[in-house]
Every structure is written in C-alpha cells, then in structure tokens.
Design brief:
- The chain is α/β, with parallel strands linked by helices.
- The chain has 6 helices and 5 strands.
- The longest helix has 12 residues.
Length: about 130
Amino acid sequence: MKCIIDTHVLLWSLFNSSLLSEKASEIILNDKNDIYVSIISFWEISLKYNIGKISLKNVLPDELPQYVKKSGFEILNIDEEIVSTFYKLPKISHSDPFDRLIIWQTIQKNMTLISKDSEFNRYNKYGLKVLW
C-alpha cells in the first residue's frame, strides 16, 4: 500500500507515536507499505513554526527532512500537474490550503491518506481514501 501521512501524523510518528491509532501504527510500521511525507508538510510546519502556531521540542523545521529520511519515510515532491489542477478539488469544508493540497496530491497519486481528521472523509466521493 502507498500512503501519504498527514502533517500531524508525521509529527506524531517522529515524536509521540502513542498518539497514533493502532491501525495507523500498523500501516506505518509494516515494511510492505510505502509511506510518504508530502513536501507540503514541511512547508506547513515551517510556516506555522514561524508564526508561533506550532512548537517543536529540540528540533528546528529545517531538520525534519533528516528525521523523515532516518525513519524510512519517503519524501514526495509536488509537481506542476498537481498544482495546476488543484482548482478541480471542490471546496467542501476545508479552507486550510495545506490540507487541501495534501488531499489533492493523495487523490491524484492514487494513494491513501493517513489522517485523524475526520473532515477529510467528505472528499471520499472525489477519490480520497483515508485511514485512521
């Protein structure tokens, strides 16, 4: 299975795995699955860190890619096709551009999103697969 982990799942996986659901942990720890971190998550963390909406203990946002690589996750870049077709994702309830970009990237890459955010399920009819 190919999965993208949402930003909060990334941080929990790296720094507080007890917050993950049992199902999310099983999927993430299963070597048969490919687990991806969207580059969008790094942007989101960096921006929110800069404006004080997120704090990180003993790590800076620019160190996170190293942690991700050490954890065995793969970094998924965003390409011109994803950003140029982003307007096609209906705006249902999520106005957060980071969430919406990750949702759209997951749909377009035909992957599964691991997220606790139950609002994401509203995008199931547009092709989003979510696990928690």
